[in-house]
Amino acid sequence: MATLQAIKYSRGKLLVLDQLKLPHEHHYDEVSTSEEAFDCIRSMRVRGAPAIAIVAALAHAVELFSGSCIATTPEETIAHIDSRLDYLKESRPTAVDLSNAISLLKRASRSAQIEGLAHPEAKEAILNAYIEAAETILTEDLRSNKSIGAHGAAWLQQQYNASPGRKISILTHCNTGSLATSGHGTALGIIRTLHTEGLLQHAYCTETRPYNQGSRLTSFELVFEKIPATLITDSMAGALFALHRERMHIGAVIVGADRVVRNGDTANKIGTYSLAVLARHHGVKFVVAAPTTSIDLETLSGAGIKIEERKAEELTQISGAVVNDDGTVDLTKTVRVAIADQRIGVWNPAFDVTPNDLIDAIVTEKGTVIKGADGKFDFSQVMPERWAAILGSESPKPEKTIDQHPLSADADAGAEAGADAGSLRAAAPAYRDPLLALHKSLVSLSSISYHEQPAGTFLIDYLTSHGYTAEKQFLSAESGANSSALGRFNVLAWPGKSSSPHARVLVTSHIDVVPPYIPYHISATTPSDVGPDTLISGRGSVDAKGSVAAQITAVESLLSSESVSPDDIMLLFVVGEEVSGDGMTFFSSSAANTHSFSAAIFGEPTENKLACGHKGIAGGTIRAKGKAGHSGYPWLGKSATNVLVRALVKLLDADLGSSERYGNTTVNIGVIEGGVAANVIPKAASARFAVRVAAGNQSTGGAIVREKLETILKETDDEALSLEWGTGYGPVECDCDVEGFDTLVANYGTDVPHLEGDHVSYLYGPGTILVAHGDDEALRVSDLETAVEGYKTLIKHALQV
């Protein structure tokens, strides 16, 4: 469905939707001068920080295109552009998007290539540079909004384990949708994405006094796009949380931002601060959605934000279409009425500032930023160039020093040995810098399972730029988890431009990670400080983006030294390994997999040891049925919870099988649910479990465990208990007979069993699984470099088998 458009633009013509006439009338004003743009912004016919910046930029572009600039020299042309932009900046001083756009446009004008040009041609080059930069602001805003929607939806999904069967509700304030941006929106864009992915139960929007952007605009957008929604007054939010938070699964308040400053304090529409206080009291997440263009690194805190105050009449008077006696709305008649004594004093700030300690997450187009262990937001990962340019040596100190990290017990010894930066760099392999840059790029991108697209898109671009043929292998809807609708894809690549590669060795790992997103961090202060013991942390730094970076670097090294032929190797980076293996399963079963590999090298954290195999995995749900009744008369009912607990005790005490190599089969009861109240005999209860299978082989292990489970349930209460069995397989064998490697057996599952075919499997990678899914996920530079050499050895060995 087409969304609303606040801005329509073609070169030389700008149309702006008059939002003061919504929701009753669609009228576009043609804006062709800076004065018209100033009035449009000041009168709030256009509003929303991104839209304001776009209208200002494009209005002056139209003005310049029409020949309004009478300057003759390059210097005069730039001075003319600067003066018009400075004028437009005062139309809405609080909105940092406008300020940032003006700075960008000034730089663009000065970057025009005019050397050797006569004055008329130089002037034309400057004007064209400005116009193209202004048009880029429009197109980039739409791309940015869709990325914010994806990142925000992914963060909320993992916070609440949301799914089409477990939806969440959201409250939003003011208007942050298509009418406030170039399209899709920021905060409302996240709501749109949740709705599209089947994760949204209900949206609530506030009236947003005194200008009623929520009731006039947001409610209009929600109705227009058929998103289930309810309008409330600003003062009803506390009651909404108190009475309906649990029933409606209200998970978050999501707001936009006119300005986010360096410490995370956020200026937004008046009333935002109150919502943050209420959300904190009721245990509801408070999320700010803003592009990085709205982040002001030069202002230290909210105390430095200039708050615009507006006219008293906006609070004491109101305009609207006339409602006839029969309830119909007469769109031809608009009246303005007084709603307060016109003599009353009025304080009417347009914005308030929400302190950073009330904000749980700030979602940008580059990823979701959460507070570190020190309680502070660190924007250096989502805007590293601006951070470095503005802060320089004031870069934030690491949240964890080396001696605070569980991996770094022996790192101090290297420091105490007095290894200087020069010796560290001299000992570094030639590929260290590109390896670490690739690893940083991957870890800096959030790619939680089912939302892997940012990492996949990056790899496509990276591999293509390095001379590979790289393809997106889109998963079909049948592969589960709404994969087709989410646009999920594997990355398949091979060296060169052959259209029909016949590689003998597949080098593969996965690009999805577990939640939550943890930003990239390196313990070295400067590049010259990086050494073997330098610690790199962040979600996916170990599992498995460390493997991905090392595998690509290893292949590059072998190709550049001509140790292997380009025809020998294929790269495959899959989605979904952490949840279901659907990415590898789809590759294995798809028509696109016409390849016959002699070997497959899988990247997982094995401490740079070669795995001889890993336990199998199985799981499912045990359900218990009972009879409800009053807890004071337990003999009148049957407690499903009691039956379930007795079965679980037997399950935990049972011998589910073992083997000499893999040890004992273990079971984890992950989720237990049941009952409706403490004084009601529960009618139903359930437990979701996972089993690490050590018995049998890959084909038989799952069946062995299932049979034992069914026996336990039958012996406990055959009538009340039932088993919903998921997928399951037994221990997986891998080849570990390669000279030069220590070996281990892993207790976790991998994609090895999901790739069918007659090939040898190797399992190897940097980092330890013991930190892979925790807050302390990290590895050393030496781990990555050792892995590169290990992968090179494995590839050469596999080609000789």
Beta-strand content: 15-25%
Major β-sheet annotation = 7 strands, mixed
Mean pLDDT: 88
Q: What are the low-pLDDT stretches, counting only 5+ consecutive residues below 50?
A: 393-426, 480-485
Order of strands across the main sheet = 6-5-4-7-10-15-16
Return Rg in Å.
Answer: 30 Å
Structural class: alpha/beta
Number of helix segments?
A: 22
Q: Tell me how many strands there are.
A: 36
Binned, the helix content reads 25-40%
End-to-end Cα distance, whole Å, is 55 Å
Characterize the overall form.
Answer: globular
Family: Belongs to the eIF-2B alpha/beta/delta subunits family. MtnA subfamily. Belongs to the peptidase M20A family.
Domain Peptidase M20 dimerisation: 613-715
Active site: 258
Pfam family, one: M20_dimer
Throw out a few tags for this protein.
single chain; alpha/beta; globular; 801 residues; 22 helices; seven-stranded mixed beta sheet; six-stranded mixed beta sheet
Topology (SSEs and partners):
Elements: E1 7-10, E2 13-17, E3 28-30, H1 34-42, H2 49-65, H3 74-89, H4 96-110, H5 119-160, E4 168-172, H6 187-196, E5 200-206, H7 213-224, E6 229-232, H8 237-244, E7 250-255, E8 259-261, E9 266-269, H9 272-282, E10 285-289, E11 295-296, H10 313-316, E12 317-323, E13 329-338, E14 351-354, E15 361-364, E16 367-370, H11 384-391, H12 411-416, H13 421-426, H14 432-444, H15 453-465, E17 468-474, H16 483-486, E18 489-495, E19 505-510, E20 521-522, E21 535-537, H17 545-560, E22 569-574, H18 582-589, E23 599-603, E24 610-614, E25 616-625, E26 629-630, H19 640-653, E27 658-659, E28 663-664, E29 666-674, E30 680-681, E31 684-693, H20 701-717, E32 721-728, E33 732-733, E34 743-746, E35 760-764, H21 769-772, E36 778-780, H22 781-800
Parallel strand pairs: 4-5, 4-7, 5-6, 7-10, 8-11, 10-15, 19-22, 19-23, 23-35, 24-34
Antiparallel strand pairs: 1-2, 2-3, 8-9, 9-14, 12-13, 15-16, 17-18, 18-22, 20-21, 21-36, 24-33, 25-31, 25-32, 26-30, 27-28, 29-31
Helix pairs in contact: 1-2, 1-3, 2-4, 2-5, 3-4, 4-5, 5-6, 8-9, 14-17, 17-22, 19-20
